[in-house]
Amino acid sequence: MKKYLFLIVLGLGLVACRKDEVNQFDGPSLQDLNGAFVIINSLQASQDSVDFAAGESVYFTADLSKTSAWKITITGQTSGAVKEITGLSSSIDVSQSLWTGTTTNLPIFKAEMCKVDLTFTNEPDTLTVFVKVLAPKTNAGFLISDFESGFNGGWTSFVQAGANMDFQIKSDGSAPEGNSYYNMAGIVDWDWLIGLVNFNASAYGASTFPLSSNPNNVYFNVMMYGEPGLNNTLVLFQFEEDENGDGAFTAASEDMYSLQVTVDWVGWKMVSIKYSDIPCLVNGSPAAPNGEGTHQSNKIKTINMLHLANPVSGYAKAKLDYMIFTENAPLNP
């Protein structure tokens, strides 16, 4: 009798387990594996125009017959800026596709018409809509320069008497932000220095740059262009601190931190660094600072930008645009 009772209880337990596991599967469904790929609802934009400067955003929707790897590519028809959004799902909605005006690949978007393509990794289909950007997004932070207003009278500069020297603000449509950038080019065969610009806080009506006193919260950002076929340019940014508040930088007794960038890439690239991570350099090598030895971002008086190249390396060229301090995070253009 006990044997029969044990078999009955065991059978009931197995039935209960099967009931709990109904409609539960491990891995992809048969529809995702073998089902036909069908566009159920085509690509749509939540609005056909967007003013990012006013804080607006836009998102995209579509419905598919099965889970698929997809990519939304937004391309500015004037700027050439590109924003990419990827996902893996059978439905695309605001939680996956919200666009706030940021870019994946420089340049930054302008006020322009944008083409929005939805493509799929394993399918030939391409779905397209258009969205008009009424105004690009604005970036919070202290803008040192985007060179749109020309050369600030409060800056100072120096250019060597070399050959093929070309240090000037240019507007030719290739800027990563706006329409203008600072061009730097030339040959100097007796010195590393080709040219420089001093961005003085006094040019903005203050004795020091208006930044947070916490160097861990301050980020320096700049967009730089590497010329095809040339990789000999060094750009050195020097941050001079007026530690004693006397209105001057004293090299022998106050801190200067230096960011040296080897421009060994092609095209526009954004360089971002936390101020507390910028070292003190002497002739390109780490050294102890001469002052208090503590990064004090709120005491930066001058930013020197030096275009350098080994004098035996020949012609050097690079471009500079959109220098900006941001707080709490690097610039998200």
Q: What's the topology here?
A:
Elements: H1 2-20, H2 30-34, E1 39-45, E2 49-51, E3 60-76, E4 82-92, H3 94-97, E5 112-120, E6 123-135, E7 142-145, E8 156-159, E9 168-170, E10 181-186, E11 193-200, E12 218-226, E13 234-241, E14 256-262, E15 267-274, E16 281-282, E17 285-286, E18 300-308, E19 316-327
Report the CATH superfamily of the largest domain.
Galactose-binding lectin
| Overall geometry | elongated
What is the CATH architecture term of the largest domain? Sandwich
Q: How does the helix and strand content classify structurally?
A: mainly beta
Secondary-structure element string: HHEEEEHEEEEEEEEEEEEEEE
Cα distance spanning the termini: 78 Å
CATH top level class name of the largest domain: Mainly Beta
Find the CATH topology of the largest domain: Jelly Rolls
Helix content: under 10%
**Number of E-state strands:** 19
Structure description:
The chain has 333 residues and is mainly β. It folds into two domains: 38-135, Macroglobulin (MG2) domain (Immunoglobulin-like), CATH 2.60.40; 142-327, Sandwich (Jelly Rolls), CATH 2.60.120.430. 8% of the residues lie in helices and 43% in strands. The protein has three helices and 19 strands. The chain has helices at 2-20, 30-34, 94-97; strands at 39-45, 49-51, 60-76, 82-92, 112-120, 123-135, 142-145, 156-159, 168-170, 181-186, 193-200, 218-226, 234-241, 256-262, 267-274, 281-282, 285-286, 300-308, 316-327. The strands form four sheets. Strands 1, 2, 3, 4, 5 and 6 form a six-stranded mixed sheet that branches. Strands 7, 9, 10, 12, 15 and 19 form a six-stranded antiparallel sheet that branches. The model is unreliable at 1-22 (pLDDT under 50).
